[in-house]
Amino acid sequence: MGIKFTKMQGCGNDFVILNYDEYIKGKWQNMSEAAIELCDRHFGAGADGLIIPNQNTDDADIGWFFYNSDGSTAQMCGNGIRCFAKYAYDNNLVNKKEFTVKTLAGIIAPSIRENGLVRVNMSKPVLESEKIPFIPVNNLNYKIAVKNRVFEGNAVSMGNPHFVIFTEEDADLLFLAKTYGPEIEISAEFPEKTNVEFVKIISKSEIELCVWERGCGITLACGTGACASVAAGILNGLLDNFTEVKLPGGKVNVEWNGIGHDIFLTGPAEYVYKAELFL
Asked: Cys bridge to 196: 42, 67, 126, 181, which one at CB 3.0-4.6 A?
C-alpha cells in the first residue's frame, strides 16, 4: 500500500509531513509507531521527526501532532513549525499567511513572509525551574558533572527543556555535543530529559551552536535550541536583542526583548520532495 507524504527541511532539520488520512491508510497501532517507521533512514523516508496536521481544533486555526524519530512526542520544534506553516498554507489547510497552531507547548503563531522565510512567535521562554522542568531552584549558571567534566549551563524551556552551555574551548562544538550531550540529556536534574546546546559567542549579535536533541541525537539545526540559547545569552548579558544563530545546517535569526516578552524565530522552510512510500 502506498502512503503519500512530503519531505521538508529547515536548516537541514528534516521532517516527514503526513496528512491524517494517509496516516490511517498505514494501519499503524499509533503515531509513535508511524514515526519510528517513517523516520528510519534505511528502511523509511528518513527524517528527524514526523508531523501530522490536526484540523480538529477549536482554539487555533490548526493543530499538529509532532513526534521525534524515536517515537517520543515533543512539545515544540522551531524548525518543524516553520515547515508545517509553509505546508499548511501551500496545501490550503489554512487560508492566510499569519495563523495560529495548537501544539503541546501552547498556541504558536507563524507568519509566512514574502521573501519565503517564516517568522514564528515562539511565546515566552520559561525560566521557572518547576515549569522547565528542572529540579534545582536556580536555573542559570548551574554546574553539572558528566564524564569527569563540569559544565556550567542554563536551563530554559521553549515548551521543551534545554540546557545551554557557553564555551570558549577550542574543541569542535559537534565533538562536545556528541561526547557530553547524551549524558546531560538524561541527567537527574531534568525529570523529562533535556536538549543540550553547546554555544560559542562570535559577537554580541552572532553565535555558533550545535545541539544534542532529546529523542533525536545530533541534528543539523534546532529552532527551539536557537531561541533558548539566545535567551540564555541575553539573560547573562552576553548578547543583544537581535542575534544571528549559525547552525550546522544554516542560519536563523532570533529576537527577544527580555523577560515578559515573546521571542521570535525567523528562518527558512523548504521542500525536499513529495513521494509515495510502499509498506
From this structure: 181
- Residue 33 phi/psi, 5° resolution? -65, -40
SS3 of residue 145 by DSSP: strand
211: phi > 0 → left, psi -120 to 50 → alpha, else beta; which? Answer: beta
11 is catalytic: no
Task: Decide: pTM greater than 0.90.
Answer: yes
Are 125 and 119 in contact by the 8 Å Cβ rule? The answer is no
For 162-184, what is each residue's pLDDT tens digit? 999 999 988 899 999 999 999 99
Closest CA to 178 of 224, 211, 145, 148: 211
Omega of the bond leading into 133 within 30 degrees of 0 (cis)? yes
> Exposed, middle or buried by CB within 10 Å (0-12, 13-18, 19+), for 271?
middle
Q: What is the pLDDT of residues 222-258, one digit of tens each?
A: 999 999 999 999 999 999 999 999 999 999 999 999 9
All residues at 6 or more sequence positions from 276 whose CB lies less than 8 Å from its CB, including other chains: 2, 3, 4, 5
210 catalytic residue (yes or no): no
* Domains by residue range for the chain, with CATH: 2-121+269-278 (3.10.310.10), 129-261 (3.10.310.10)
Catalytic residue among 39, 210, 222, 227: 222
Catalytic residue selected from 77, 83, 210, 216: 77
State how far the alpha carbon of 246 is from the alpha carbons of 30, 115, 199, in Å: 36, 20, 10
